[in-house]
Amino acid sequence: MFTLSGYRSFGLDDEISSDYGSDDLENSPQVNIGSWIREATRVNVTVRHESKQRRKTNNPSDENSHNKELPVQNLSRKYNTFDIFKRDWCRMQRARLEWKEVLGPCLNSTAWEEPNSHGINQISDPGKSFITHWDIRQAGEFSRFVIQTVSPSNEVKTIGGDSWRIHLHGVSSLAPTVLDLGNGSYEVLFLIIEDGEYEAKIFLDYSLCHGFKDPPPFWFKKGNPQGKNQPDGILKGDRPFLIAPFRGGEKVTFHVPSSNNNQRHIDALMMAVPSSTKRPQYTCDSSCGTFVWDGFGRWINAQWKPYIKEDVQKDRRTGEGIFFAFGDSVSNTFFSSLTSGPYSGLCKMAFTGCRVVYHWVYDMTRYWGDGVKSPREPLPDEQDYDHERVINDVKKTLYNPVMNEKSVLLLNMGIHFAAAVNFTNYRRVIDQLVSLVNEDNSHRKLFNDTNSFKGRFIWKTSTALNRERFPNPHKDVRRFLTFPRVLLYNAYATSAMCRAGVDVIDVYPISDSYPAGTMSQSDPVHYANHVFRDVEALLYKMFAP
């Protein structure tokens, strides 16, 4: 249990500082969270206002300020609990689709800079930061808490730009939505269906927008043909990855009360969708009706439990077409499990066969050496990033002669782009990919052009990153492979696919919520096969005869 002397619930609005701004912190109540007791009153904490340089990107009136909403206590007087549930459901959905909201106050602060002492006094200190507000509702309703950041000199921060990695474990395991409010505080929003005791594992990975920084202009050129293996020291000592536990790793627990009907709001949400809708959507965005796998849910006893059971829209094949899986080693692992596991019938009965296309930034054909006569990986070659080469590699699969109307292309391009390619260039790739798929669909109807994409296209998001599991997470080559950048690249690609009417399977939440994380303590990206078994089942149900 937790108790708050003088407890009040809270929310967000455009005048957020008037509800729980820094002035209120000096008189905030005692917080008792299980065995963790902290005085929220900070005798030695002062309020620090943002510098002129950062004021522009942290203005609460900025059109990109993140998810400013009416306070929960005000909403409860005007709306019923289901209306409040829908509001928070939509905020959770928007957080994975609105890339500008993912960036938040970092929108104009993504250019890499050489490390220096400027702004070091504004970095967040997770050991001194604290939880200011709790709003834990009964099972089946959205709950939240707010983290207030503090600088190393005990000054309450009023600027955003931090990246908090948070996971919740109890009867179920899930990854909450962390919202940067742009004022030095961070809302942690989550939907727990199973009541009971929970623990929040909280780490600060980046501060001052360092988690979103793009590679410097020379980055790709100093790497090998895939833009990796840059020499250590090239970033001149830049080590922004903090991996810092909240308050030194002290235990943070809370209790979710039981409910007479913990499914009532989700059931009401499903009933609110017109029965005439071809594919029921709960994304709160009329332009995004293409999720074939919503992705949100939780893990219970090694079983994935989605909040909303997927409504499979069947598109049966009877030994027709080829199923292509295009992507990196994560996609390869998924393909291997799909073709050898319990749903291998997809490749034997639904399609005439399945093929994998191994791709990082470019096609991986002839990339690996034997390690004896040739290096295991190519050496740096002074070649810069080539957008046209990326697109031409994709076209080889799109226009493969065996890619007919019954074929399916499941494609992901994400993690290796986040590691090596700036966000502007990634957006260009996604935009052109969407254009190729959509233009080809309309073009072939008119001209039956053989040089066009004829199959069904499904976008698969990138999985969650366990970056802290790198054997040496501070090596320069790993600098830009950050979880905030993966979230950002996912958001842009997913929203672009939605607008274009492209099917989307979002595997980020199921991987981020998995309690054991990646398959080993030294592997930051690969998951055990069973983690995505439900995605395999979905594809089988979609296309099986």
From TrEMBL:
InterPro entries the UniProt entry points to: Ig-like_fold (IPR013783), Ig_E-set (IPR014756)
Chain intervals for the UniProt region annotation (Disordered): 47-72
PANTHER family referenced in this protein's UniProt entry, alphabetically: NXPE FAMILY MEMBER (PTHR16165), NXPE FAMILY MEMBER 3 (PTHR16165:SF5)
Protein name, as recorded: Uncharacterized protein
Natural source organism: Desmophyllum pertusum
